[in-house]
Design goal:
This protein is α/β, with parallel strands linked by helices and 764 residues long. Among the domains are: 214 residues, Glycoside hydrolase family 3 C-terminal domain (Rossmann fold, 3-Layer(aba) Sandwich), CATH 3.40.50.1700; 114 residues, Sandwich (Immunoglobulin-like), CATH 2.60.40.10. The protein has 23 helices and 27 strands. The strands form 6 sheets. The chain has an 8-stranded parallel sheet. Helix 2 crosses helix 15, helix 4 runs parallel beside helix 5 and helix 13 crosses helix 14. The structure holds beta-D-glucopyranose.
């Protein structure tokens, strides 16, 4: 590694010749190096560094190169081709006056060429090692494709599944999402973002984007400071504490001020309170949108607000380039304000190792991969292992799963053989032709043994308006395949094969575009075309196994009552078909747990488990009148946070505490014995929740504070210990101080957020 670094540096300096603006003698000292470079920059060159452009497939390369060489572009995104990036880097690092390198970014969210499960799927593994590995592999692949930065992790807490971007995030819980934020940043950046096989993480969307009103994308966020600090901000903070070099600023407004113009957010909180020293990048076109938010009269005012608030780089527009020179001239923006952002941009480039070697990840032309999609560039073993861990078994009546591979199986549903949907949205440079579908996976698993019959059975939806919308969202390819046959014929074909089979496996849910940016829904059900198929399959009387593919919690009331087994597979990525087959045939015993509650109906939203307490709580089994509830249906979620079954059975003993008291600054141990009382080896996630009995502000009914994913052989039991200290008892009080108050706490240990055993203690 060190050798590659040194060679790269020599090559770069040689190419730059004697006039290199960057002073190599100062390279060891970041501050001095950047100060020296900035002292040589004109105002226009500084402003040029603040511009991040998207490279579209049809953009004139020569024009871009000219702009870069003129010092009017600081970085690009969406360009993933060595030849293009080398050409652009040549323009920057060899032809521009000061030879300041560009950086190349991309949305590497859950994989790059190898696609891993979507965020909700990764979170369902509760396996930090696996999640870190997915990010590390993504970084290795992205860096090998000449990329320096990813716009990830996406750690927006989401409690409203109408929001299509729920799929991208890691669920509803601040603690779990914070742990994942940390693991992903470590994975992307590795030991250092300056390594040739690392990419810089830019955590997004700062902040609170997951709380858009009504789950409608881009909508406003209006939130109390307590909720913000307690629930929504911790994951961003965790990513920053883990060393994320970048932050992407959210598109939404927060309590009346758009994030992109929010000085409190970007300076007081992010930089002063949290000590962030990296780069803050706007979201796509967000600065111009300040005009549409109605806080700026025109682009000029928008640029002024954003730069003053602390948005360092403007993404996908020329606003800074056009407006900042005039704003500086008139004195409305100071050179010091421009310098602050330039320092952050150059600092990020320094941290990515680009001043040491602008070609660190681009490499030499002679080394360009002959085939970008070559199998040798993929990480299929990791993808299969991690995908298996992401699956959640929601129902398994009469042990309908696992299936006997010598049986005759009728595989139906629009998602059974859809390679594009397997990848989920934001699939970076993944190619659908690399995806293993469920049909392929099951065929391989059954080869030479049972019989797999297949019929599509239904389209994702018969609503042409929805199909048009999904195709329109993804303008560069046909997103949704519509079988032209009449729905009744497709169902009849599916029923015919179902009658010949021992068991039906139906792969149903949403197409990937239904759980995407700008894909907010007003309903959470499986579309009517697929429901009609399921009803017809149910009527055959054959065992019915549903393999769900979706990017948000769905309303599964009918399915949970009528299917024999429900396996939530999310969008499981390149190796999804193999991974699902592993679970379906019992080669792998599922252990995933929900990172987000599944409501019974859309009217219950939000359904998150860690709800603040109320004065008239609804208590199951007690009369419901004048309590906080809905009277039309059963209360509480259909499937709670933390829930997931296994092919074996586990029990949890009573909880024992090392002491009934905790001194200030002290700690105690909570223990419970978990036993595998079933007939198979299996894994489960033991979860620790804490309930604060009384405090100076209203506290949640319980909060996840720790967890352990464990593996037990049949008949084996193990004492699981959680160490609890004062930090675990802290919360934000009315003055937003992070404190632990004396009094009683309840420790709860269980295998989901509802089925817990508990024990109390007092903090002195
Ligand atoms: C999304 C971001 C993404 C950016 C660049 C925006 O529309 O909100 O999450 O990083 O585009 O692709």
């Amino acid at each position: 590694m060190a050798r590659r670094f040194a060679l790269g540096l020599c090559a770069f300096l040689l190419a730059c010749g004697a006039q290199a603006a960057a002073n190599p003698a100062l390279l060891g000292d970041k501050e001095a190096f950047i100060a020296d470079l900035m002292s040589q920059m004109t105002l226009d060159e500084k402003i040029g560094q603040l511009r991040l452009i998207s490279i579209g497939p049809d953009m004139p390369r020569e024009k871009i190169a000219k702009e870069i060489a003129a010092g009017r572009i600081g970085g690009t995104f969406n360009s993933v081709v060595h030849v293009d990036n080398r050409m652009m880097q040549d323009a920057a690092a060899r032809k521009s006056r000061l030879r300041i390198p560009l950086f190349f970014a991309y949305d590497v969210v859950h994989g790059h060429r190898t696609i891993f499960p979507i965020g909700l799927g990764l979170a369902s593994s509760w396996d930090m090692g696996a999640i870190e590995r997915a990010a590390r592999v993504s970084a290795i692949e992205a860096a090998a494709d000449s990329l320096d930065m990813t716009f990830a992790p996406m750690v927006d807490i989401s409690r409203d599944p109408r929001w299509g971007r729920t799929s991208e995030g890691y669920g509803e819980d601040p603690y779990l999402v914070s742990r994942i934020a940390q693991a992903t940043v470590q994975g992307y950046q590795g030991p250092s973002p300056a390594r040739a096989d690392s990419i810089m993480a830019s955590v997004k969307h700062f902040a609170l984007y997951g709380a858009v009103e009504g789950g409608r994308d881009y909508n406003v966020v209006d939130m109390s400071p307590l909720r913000m600090y307690q629930d929504y901000l911790p994951p961003y903070r965790a990513a920053i504490d883990a060393g994320a070099g970048g932050v992407m600023v959210a598109l939404n407004s927060i309590n009346g001020i758009p994030a992109s113009a929010n000085t409190w957010l970007l300076q007081d909180l992010l930089r002063k309170d949290w000590g962030f020293r990296g780069i803050a990048i706007s979201d796509h076109g967000a600065i111009t949108e300040l005009v549409r938010h109605g806080v700026a009269h025109d682009n000029r005012e928008a640029a002024r607000l954003a730069i003053k608030a602390g948005v360092d780089m403007s993404m996908a527009d020329s606003l800074y380039l056009q407006e900042l020179p005039g704003l500086v001239k008139s004195g409305e923006v100071t050179v010091a304000e421009i310098d602050r952002s330039v320092r952050n941009v150059l600092g990020a480039k320094y941290d990515m190792g680009l001043f040491h070697d602008p070609y660190l990840r681009i490499g030499a032309a002679a080394d360009d991969p002959p085939d970008l999609y070559a199998e040798s560039r993929m990480h299929r073993t990791d993808a299969r292992e991690i995908a298996r861990k992401s699956m959640v078994l929601l129902e398994n009546r009469n042990r309908a799963l696992p299936l006997d591979r010598a049986a005759t199986v009728a595989l139906v549903g629009p998602l059974a053989d859809s390679p594009l949907d397997m990848m989920g949205s934001w699939s970076a440079a993944g190619k659908s032709t690399s995806s293993v579908t469920l049909r392929q996976g099951m065929e391989e698993a059954m080869r030479g043994q049972g019989r797999l019959l297949y019929a599509r059975g239904a389209n994702i939806t018969d609503d042409a308006r929805i199909v048009d919308y999904l195709n329109f969202l993804n303008w560069d390819h046909k997103e949704v395949f519509q079988d032209p046959r009449p729905p009744a014929d497709m169902i009849a074909e599916a029923v015919r094969i179902a009658r010949q089979a021992d068991v039906i496996v139906a792969a149903v849910g949403e197409s990937r575009g239904m759980s995407h940016e700008s894909s907010s829904r007003t309903r959470l059900d499986i579309p009517a075309s697929q429901r009609a198929l399921l009803h017809a399959l149910k009527a055959t009387g054959k065992p019915l196994v549903l393999v769900l593919m979706n990017g948000r919690p769905l309303d599964l009331q009918w399915e949970s009552a009528n299917a024999d087994a429900l396996l939530e597979t999310w969008y499981s990525g390149t190796e999804g078909g193999h991974a699902i087959a592993d679970v379906v045939f019992g080669d792998y015993n599922p252990a995933g747990k929900l990172p987000i509650s599944f409501p019974r109906s859309i009217g219950q939203i939000p359904t998150y488990y860690n709800h603040p307490r109320v004065g008239r709580p609804f208590v199951e089994g007690k009369p419901g009148n004048y309590t906080s509830q809905y009277f039309e249906e059963k209360n509480g979620p259909l499937y709670p946070f933390g829930y997931g079954l296994s092919y074996t059975d586990f029990t949890v003993s009573e909880v024992s505490l090392s002491s009934a008291r905790m001194e200030r600054g002290g700690r105690l141990a909570a223990r419970a014995t978990v036993a595998n009382v079933g007939g198979r080896p299996g894994e489960t996630v033991v979860q620790l929740y804490i309930r604060d009995e009384a405090a100076s502000v209203v506290r949640p009914v319980k909060e996840l504070r720790d967890f352990q994913r464990i593996s037990l052989a049949p008949g084996e039991s193990r004492v699981i210990q959680f160490d609890i200290d004062e930090e675990d008892l802290k919360f934000f009080n009315a003055r937003l101080e992070h404190v632990a108050e004396p009094g009683a706490f309840e420790i709860q240990i269980g295998l989901d957020s509802q089925a817990v055993r508990s024990q109390r203690f007092e903090l002195q």
